[in-house]
Every structure is written in C-alpha cells, then in structure tokens.
Amino acid sequence: MNISKLLARNARKFPHKIALIDGDVSLSYREVDDTVNRLASSLASLGIKRGDKVVLYMPNVKEFVYAYFAVLRLGAIIVPINARLTAQEVQYIIDHSEAKAVIAHDWIYQELASLVHKVDAIWVKTGEAIEGWRSLSQLIASGDASPVVCPLSEEDETTILYTSGTTGKPKGVLFTARNIFAVATMMALETKMDKHSRLLHMMPLSHSAPLHLFFVGGMYVGATHVLSPTFSPEALLELVTKHQITHFFGAPVAYLLTAKHPRLHEYDLSSVQYWTYGGAPLSANEVQFVAKQFRTNRLMCLYGLTEAGPNGTYLSPEEHATKAGSVGKDAALHCEVKIVDEHGNDVLPGEIGEIILAGEGTMKGYYKDEEKTAETVKNGWLYTGDLARRDEDGYIWIVDRKKDMIISGGVNVYPKEVEDALKLHPAIVDVAVVGVPHPEWGETVKAFVVTKEPIEQLAEECERFLLDKLADYKIPKLYEAIPELPRNATGKILKQVLRGIHNETATRS
C-alpha cells in the first residue's frame, strides 16, 4: 500500500463523489485521479523518477493536490514547503534536499525568479509557460491518462517536511508511507471521519498536521476536501457555512481572531463536529473564550510534533469542560507517551519532566543528519523538548519548551506561566516572554507586550498586576511594547526574533 493508491482506490469506489472544492470549482475523485495520471506521465517524460525530490511551493489549491499525488505516483519524494518562504529560504531547501524539480504557483512563482537560472532544476508553474518555466496545465493537457501504478511500499520514503527553523536552519524530516498512514488513520478514527465528512483546509498543507492528519486522513475515508489558499476569519466563517464543514484544523491564532469577529453569531457553524486546534498552546481562559464565541462544545486539542508524524496526545471535546488548557491524558492511536527526567526515568505526578513519544508515526530521521536524529530519537522514543507535568487525574499540562526555559540566578522560570498570567490583563492583547542576558543572574525575564492601546508606565502597570499572581522571581524585570508578535505560518511565536529585537534595543541604548 502507498499514499498514491488512496486516490486511485477512491476514484474506483466513488468515481462521481466530490473530492475537491477549490473556489467555484468542484472535482470528482475520478477527475482528480485522471488529472494526476496525466501529470505523472508528463513529469516522468521530463526525467522525474523514483527517489527524486520535488519541491512543491504552493498555497492550498487544486494544483497542490495534483502535484502531490503525481510526484508520489512516480515513486519520487515530495517536499512541500510554505508558500510564504523567501527565495533564500527556498534555495536552502532545494540545495539541502537535492531537489530535481520545483513546482510553484503562478501567484508566487516570481519570488523564485532569482533562482531559475542559477539553480539546476526543472522549473514548473501553474499558468502560462515563460522563459525558464514549464506550464503545469500544459503538462497535464499533454499527458497520458492511462493509470500510472506507484511502485512504492509502506516501507519506502515518500515525504520530507522541513521544520519551521525557529531555532536555526530548517531540518528535513523524512517520512515513509507507513509513518504517514499511522497518523492519518489515527486522525480519521479519533475524529470519526468518514465518506460523508467535509474537511476545510486553510492551514498550509506544507505542514504536517494539515497534510498528514487531515488531508491524507480524509483521503483514507473518501471525504470531501474544501481548499482555501489563505486564512481570514471572514473566509473561515463563510466557507464553514456554505459547505457545511464537519472538520476544521487551525492554529490557535486562527480561533482567537475569528472569535473576535463582530458578526460571528450571524453564521451557521452547527455542522462542525470537530473544531481541532494545535501547533501552539491555548490557555484555559482562551479555550473558554473561543468555545463561548463559537457556541460549541466540540473543541479538540491536538498535541504532537512534526517529527512524530505528527502524533501525540489529544484532549477530547468531552474533556474540555474540566481540563481546558491541558493536552490530554492518554496517547492517541498508534502512539505512547511518557514524561521523564534527565535520566529517562518517569517523573511523579506534579513533577516537571520532558514529554517523550513513541509510535509508528515517528519519522525515519532527519534527512542527511544522523547525529541530530540520534540525539532526538533514543531507543525508539522521540524526545520532544517540551516540559510538562501530570496532574492528580493524569492529565498533561505543558509547562514550556525546554529550550525556552529561563534560568535566572539559578532558578527556573517557565515563560508560558508568565505569559498566561499577563494575558489576563484586560488591556493586553498578546504577550511573549523570553530570557535575555544579565551580567549577574545569567538571564533575566523580559516581556514583549501587545496592547489594545498604549499603556503609560507599562512596567509598573504589569508588575502591579502580577504581584498576587506570580512569585516575585517570575515577574519580568523588563518590558517592551511592540505592534505585534512575530509568528511563523503555524502561529508559533518566533522567540529568536524577539531576542534579536532586544539585542538591537540594548545596543542602541
């Protein structure tokens, strides 16, 4: 079994069922499969073969789906990358992955114009062919519709996803078909997907959860996929209402922004069976706010890492009433979870340790980096770098990222705890806490704050507000107001950017 066969099987089982909705275009499973065969045959004629790497630089559009399956159908390895990356970032991935071809969308291909004549690759884009670029639509039109049979087995390598690079150069996470099947079936079963399900894809399909959990998971069961190239609160509400969406996955920021939409209550969102979120934490207060605004009891928290497939734990809708803010108690299907100390021993309830995961979804390894792979996966367990504790009922609460923990004067400070406390301030919209150098204490705590309107004497106001909420050593000593927090496409705060802002401010002063 391989991923390409999912589409071919659905085309035989549900030939006339709508597989994709992209704007005003609706396509059946048979139509999508025929297009994929045509494109695969044309790519083969260009020399794309088993084991070749093909970079996919597109938003969530029907052409992404065509290219994704066509590349896999040839036994080549797909490398989907975020459509917002710059030419320099794309070149690094092309070079590192040794990509033989790049398939881009007409909306954004010009971002890569500087690379076309200096990077030796096959360049393809949607729309018309121009100098240096072949036309995807022409390749489809000239291709042979005869079935192309994928030669891969479940053990073969199929996909490289590049991490966001929040702490350095992106790492290529290499997956086999078995890895992806494990997490796709997990998501389909845990959220009760079936052929009647209608999935809305607004988060980038270049990322593991949208792609492997929801797109491939939906393909497993023959669901209908609604594609959206961008996210906005208005688009989310309109598409859910228009297409009677049953499953949606979004970054926490997508829910928080939509929850503030002035006309949210005018939309019919009753069709949604699972509002899933993950990729960054939501506090208990934020979860309760979103649930109230969306008028739903169907929120589901997903926790996992790209390197795990992603797989990990989840907090079911039924558990949100009492454990909102937790990432759940038990590992999801095909996964195990433990919280361990620095020696790998299980910690007691209430004690802080590192989350480690094991399961069939765990990556084969970091591409071309055996040393980093060995550091991350030990005896079959993936070390996540996330610090957490279990409460008296066994539920897991994320304390912080191990790398983000601040050691000030020999005492551990967990930024997430400070951030959650500051977010309770009625004038604070968003906040991020980082450790910055201090000549005596090693590090000191600094808060970057986004407010509704300027706060005079920001430091004094925040310190006053935190006095009865945090121990004095946890209260930030430094504050800086900024217009917005820097985030990547999945909503994760780029704390290294904030440290750079601090260094620039310190240098000027």
From TrEMBL:
Domain of life of the organism in this record? Bacteria
Extract the GO molecular function terms from the UniProt entry: acid-thiol ligase activity
Give every AMP-dependent synthetase/ligase domain span: 8-367
Keywords from UniProt, A to Z, are: Ligase
AMP-binding enzyme C-terminal domain location is 417-492
Query: By its UniProt entry, which Pfam families does this protein fall under?
Result: AMP-binding, AMP-binding_C
Family stated for the protein in its record: Belongs to the ATP-dependent AMP-binding enzyme family.
What is the official name of this protein in its record? Answer: Long-chain-fatty-acid--CoA ligase (Long-chain acyl-CoA synthetase)
Identify the species of origin. Answer: Anoxybacillus flavithermus (strain DSM 21510 / WK1)
